[in-house]
Amino acid sequence: MTIQAKDYIETAFSVEDADKINPIINKSMTENDKVIIDFTGITFFTTLFFSSALTRFIKDFGNEAYNKKLEVIGLTNVGQTAYQHSLDYAVETIEMTPEERHAKLFAIDSILDEE
What we know:
Elements: E1 2-4, H1 15-31, E2 35-38, H2 47-55, H3 57-61, H4 63-69, E3 70-73, H5 77-94, H6 98-114
Helix pairs in contact: 1-2, 2-5
């Protein structure tokens, strides 16, 4: 099944954008073996959007099954970069122990406190 993202969102920028398309993605992911999401025509992207709409499924399916079940096409270069960063972060954090996740978040908070 192919989802034309442009039918549901104008940008792939925010959690609100993700909230608009998530019901369609969720339904498609449960009803189909493979889901293709086509972002042709969308030019604004953030990792926040991809984390909220797509790469969160890595937690449910694991990286290998996620890659078999979901394909993203039609991204601009910026979109591809944002998606890849979101994907890399999701894979990295899902493989961490809870202690490692906590330590990473603590390190990020420490850096932010210094600024």
